[in-house]
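Put briefly, the fold is written as integer tokens. One such record reads:
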Amino acid sequence: QVQLAESGGGSVQIGESLRLSCAASGRTLSNYPVGWFRQAPGKEREGVSCMRSRDGSTYYADSVKGRFTISKDQGTNTVYLQMNDLRPEDTAVYYCATDFESNCVIATTDPRRGAIEFDYWGRGTQVTVSS
């Protein structure tokens, strides 16, 4: 049974940073694709970042390129999302997700199909950015 748990969310001001963590049990995350998604009230769940397992390639939505960085720590079986220069439009609940086979390109470019690529989800962590 795969279980994911996000942490690290909070309330910050414009331009500040947060680092989200996704801790896993029941699966070695580095062996599978891992995605970070976010969902704001009334909006679709969108993929913001994804890491491919076989070569560690990383993918980002255009809205976060240059500001967010996905990384992994194999020793602790944790995937991180470093978020810098946060903006009010980044406010959302952030989720991590994994599956056996997921398409990171679809995950980060197609809001309608991205979330379908993953079957295992955490419960999310709230990020609020205020001016």
In short: Residues 104-109 form the longest helix (6 residues). Residues 101 and 130 are 36 Å apart (CA to CA).
